[in-house]
Design goal:
The chain is mainly α. It is built from 5 helices and no strands.
């Protein structure tokens, strides 16, 4: 946010840069239209930089392979697709027609809060969860049929 040169003077103009992560299949123009609907017509909107967008997800046969691996490793678990809120390089591969899957299998023991263990100041993963994930990724490599 930028506006004015003095803290005690109302600026005549304010600039605001937003870093936006679009949903798969959504375009920057879609997002600008949605934003315009919220803030009205008084503001000037422009796109400064745009990365490739992610296409709509297609689960496909390899997703079924990943799901089977997880069901075998943890019959009580429920494998589900999810949308990563952070950035990955998958959007660049998608522009080349290459489907990518994020596969981070783990089974945190009950009582271990995933959201507090990973990507926190004291980042850690239980050894059992790491072993579970390593075995699942190894199975995915063995079963991959490009």
């Amino acid at each position: 946010v930028r506006g004015g040169i003095k803290i005690n003077v109302i600026p005549s103009e304010i600039e605001l840069d937003l870093d936006c992560r679009l949903l798969p299949g959504q375009t920057a123009e879609d997002w600008l239209g949605e934003l315009r609907g919220v803030i009205g017509e008084d503001a000037e909107l422009s796109i400064i930089r745009q990365s490739p967008t992610m296409p709509e997800p297609e689960l496909g046969p390899f997703f079924e392979t990943l799901r089977a691996i997880l069901r075998e490793a943890d019959p009580d678990g429920t494998p589900i697709p999810y949308l990563v809120s952070g950035g990955t390089d998958a959007r660049h591969f998608a522009q080349l027609g290459i489907r990518t899957y994020g596969f981070l299998p783990h089974n945190f023991p009950e009582g271990v809060a995933y959201e507090r263990a990973m990507h926190d100041a004291d980042e850690r993963v239980p050894v059992s969860a790491l072993e579970f994930g390593t075995d699942a990724v190894h199975q995915a490599i063995l079963r991959y049929r490009g």
